[in-house]
Design goal:
Elements (H helix, E strand, L loop, with lengths): L1 E2 L4 E6 L4 H10 L6 E5 L5 H12 L3 E6 L2 E5 L7 E2 L1 H4 L7 H10 L1 E5 L13 H9 L3 E4 L4 E5 L7 E3 L5 H11 L5 E5 L5 H12 L3 E3 L5 E5 L8 E3 L4 H14 L1 E6 L7 H9 L3 E4 L3 E6 L8 E2 L11 H9 L4 E5 L10 H6 L3 E5 L2 E5 L8 E3 L3 H13 L3 E5 L2 H4 L5 H7 L3 E2 L2 E3 L6 E3 L1
Parallel strand pairs: 2-15, 3-14, 6-7, 10-11, 18-19, 22-23
Antiparallel strand pairs: 1-23, 1-24, 3-5, 4-5, 7-9, 8-9, 11-13, 12-13, 15-17, 16-17, 19-21, 20-21, 25-26
The structure holds ligand EPZ.
Ligand EPZ binds next to helix 1, helix 5, helix 6 and helix 12.
C-alpha cells in the first residue's frame, strides 16, 4: 500500500546483483571445495538457487543474511526437478554447472518472468552441443544433457544472450581445450561471473567484450568472493527519485554500470551527480520527455524499461519506447492506464503522452520489473495505490519497503487473507 506524493530524501544502499548471484551460486559447484560468497542479495531468487544446492547434496552454511559458504565436495546428484526450477528462469544455469562438474545434468525446463512471449533456449543448447554434449528434452520437459568429455570449441551466438553466454561459460570452464564465445553478452554480471570463476582458478579472458575465451582447467579450488552491486536495483531507485521528486543518494554502486540510465535521466532534465561509488539524483517538477530503445549492455537495459515508462508517463511531451530485447514486454501498460497514464502500444513500440499526474488505483505486479514500476507509479500518484502480487517484486528487490520508507516514502506491506477480504499489516 502506497500513499503517493511524498518527496524522497536521503540515502539508499544498493544490494548485491541478483543476476550475478543467480549465476555465481550454481557456479560454486564447479569446484570440489568450499566457496564463501558475500553480498548475496536477500531475495527469493537467491533463496531458491540455494535451495537447489541443498537438493543436489551440497553443504550450505549461512553465515549471515548476505553471506553463505557452499561446500560442494561431496555432491552426488545431478537432477533438478520442476518443483525447484518452476520459480525462476536462472535455474537453467544448473544445466551448465552440472554438465561442467559431472558431465551430466537432468534439469527441468525453467519457470520465471513471463513477458507474454516465448523465451527460447536454443542458443544454450547449441553451445552445449558444440562442446560435445548430447541433449534431449524428455516427455516430462526435463533437459537431459550428458558428455563423456566436454571439448572446447568456437561458439558463435546467433543472438546476444546473457543466459546462453553464462551457461556456456559454466560448462566450458572445465572442458578440455579452448572455447571461444563470439557475439557474447557483455552485461556486468557476465564479468562478475568470470571474475568469480577466475578466483577459483579458471582461465577466462575477455568477459565484458563480445569475445570471451575460456581455456578449460582440470580442477578448481575454493575462494572467497563478493558479488557486485545490482545495476538494475540502483537504476530502479534512480528512476524512483527522478519520478517522485526529491534528493536521493544511491549508495554502493558502480557508476560506470549506470551510464545509460544517468544519460537518459539527464536528458529528462533530472540532476545526476556521480561520485566514486554513489550517484546523487535530484529532481524538481515534471521531467522532460525522451525516447528510449532498449538494447543489450552497454545499451539501455530492458530491465529498466517499465520503470522508465512510469517516469515518461508524467513527462512534459510525448516519448517513445522501443523494446529491442524482448518480443513483448508491455503487459504492465494496462495497469498504468488504469492510473491515468496515456500510453499506446503497437508491438515493440510504446508511445507515451505525458499527463500532469497519475492517480492511485488497485493494480498488480505482472512480473518483477513491472512490479518495481508499479511501486514507482504508486509513489508518484495522487492518493492510495494497492499493488497485488508483490511476490514478484520480492524475487529481485531486497527490503524494498524498508529502503523506500527510509527515504520518506509512505509504503507498507500488508497481508490479505482472502481476495478482497480484510487487510492486516504484516
Ligand atoms: C537475462 O535473461 C536476465 N535474467 C533478464 O532479466 C534480462 O531481461 C535479459 O537477460 C536481457 O538483459 C537473468 O539474468 C537471470 P537473454 P535471459 O538470453 O538470459 C533471445 C530480470 O528482470 N534468446 O539475454 O533469459 C531472447 O528471446 C530478468 O532480472 C534466444 O533467441 O535473456 C531475447 O529476445 C528478466 N535464444 C534475447 O535473446 C536463446 O537461446 C535476450 O535474451 C536465448 C535468448
Amino acid at each position: 500500500m502506497i500513499n503517493g506524493g511524498k518527496k524522497l530524501c536521503g540515502k539508499i544502499d544498493i544490494s548485491g546483483a541478483k543476476n550475478a548471484a543467480v549465476a555465481i551460486i550454481p557456479a560454486a559447484i564447479l569446484c570440489e571445495d568450499v566457496c564463501r560468497i558475500e553480498n548475496i542479495p536477500k531475495i527469493s531468487d537467491s533463496a531458491v538457487m540455494i535451495k537447489i544446492l541443498h537438493s543436489l547434496g551440497a553443504g550450505v552454511r549461512v553465515i549471515n543474511d548476505n553471506t553463505v559458504e557452499i561446500d560442494s565436495t561431496h555432491m552426488n546428484c545431478h537432477t533438478v526437478t520442476y518443483e525447484m526450477t518452476k520459480h525462476l528462469r536462472a535455474s537453467y544455469y544448473y544445466i551448465g554447472a552440472l554438465l561442467g562438474r559431472f558431465g551430466k545434468a537432468r534439469v527441468a525446463m525453467p519457470g520465471g518472468c513471463n513477458f507474454g512471449g516465448v523465451r527460447p533456449i536454443d542458443q544454450h543448447i547449441k553451445g552445449f552441443k558444440l562442446l560435445g554434449a548430447s541433449i534431449f528434452l524428455d516427455e516430462d520437459a526435463i533437459v537431459d544433457a550428458s558428455a563423456d568429455c566436454l571439448i572446447g570449441s568456437p561458439i558463435y551466438l546467433d543472438t546476444v544472450s546473457v543466459g546462453a553466454t553464462i551457461n556456456i561459460m559454466l560448462a566450458a570452464t572445465r572442458a578440455k581445450g579452448l572455447t571461444i564465445i563470439e557475439n557474447a553478452a557483455k552485461e556486468p554480471h557476465i564479468v562478475d561471473l568470470a571474475n568469480f570463476l577466475n578466483s577459483m582458478g579458471a582461465d577466462i579472458r575477455g568477459a565484458g567484450t563480445d569475445v570471451i575465451k575460456i581455456r578449460g582447467v582440470d580442477r578448481l579450488h575454493g575462494c572467497t568472493y563478493s558479488i557486485i552491486p545490482d545495476q538494475i536495483e540502483a537504476g530502479t531507485y534512480m528512476v524512483a527519485a527522478a519520478a517522485a521528486g526529491g534528493d536521493v543518494l544511491i549508495n554502493n554502486v558502480i557508476p560506470k554500470h549506470l551510464e545509460s540510465i544517468s544519460a537518459k535521466l539527464i536528458e529528462c532534465g533530472i540532476e545526476v551527480e556521480e561520485f566514486d561509488d554513489s550517484i546523487l539524483v535530484k529532481s524538481f517538477g515534471r521531467p522532460m520527455r525522451c525516447n528510449i530503445k532498449t538494447m543489450p549492455h552497454p545499451g539501455f537495459p530492458t530491465d529498466l524499461q517499465p520503470q522508465m515508462a512510469v517516469l515518461l508517463s508524467i513527462a512534459k511531451g510525448t516519448s517513445i519506447i522501443n523494446e529491442g530485447v524482448w518480443d513483448s514486454r508491455f503487459r504492465y501498460v494496462d495497469q498504468l492506464i488504469r492510473m491515468g497514464a496515456s500510453i499506446k502500444v503497437d508491438g515493440k513500440i510504446a508511445v507515451i503522452e505525458g499527463v500532469d499526474q497519475l492517480k492511485g488505483a488497485q493494480i498488480k505486479a505482472d512480473d518483477l520489473r513491472a512490479g518495481a514500476a508499479m511501486i514507482i507509479a504508486g509513489l508518484v500518484a495522487k492518493g492510495t495505490t494497492e499493488i497485488d502480487n508483490v511476490i514478484y517484486i520480492d524475487r529481485g528487490y531486497e527490503d524494498v519497503v524498508e529502503k523506500l520508507s527510509s527515504v520518506g516514502a509512505d509504503i507498507r506491506r500488508v497481508t490479505v487473507s482472502e481476495p478482497s477480504a480484510s487487510v492486516s499489516v504484516g
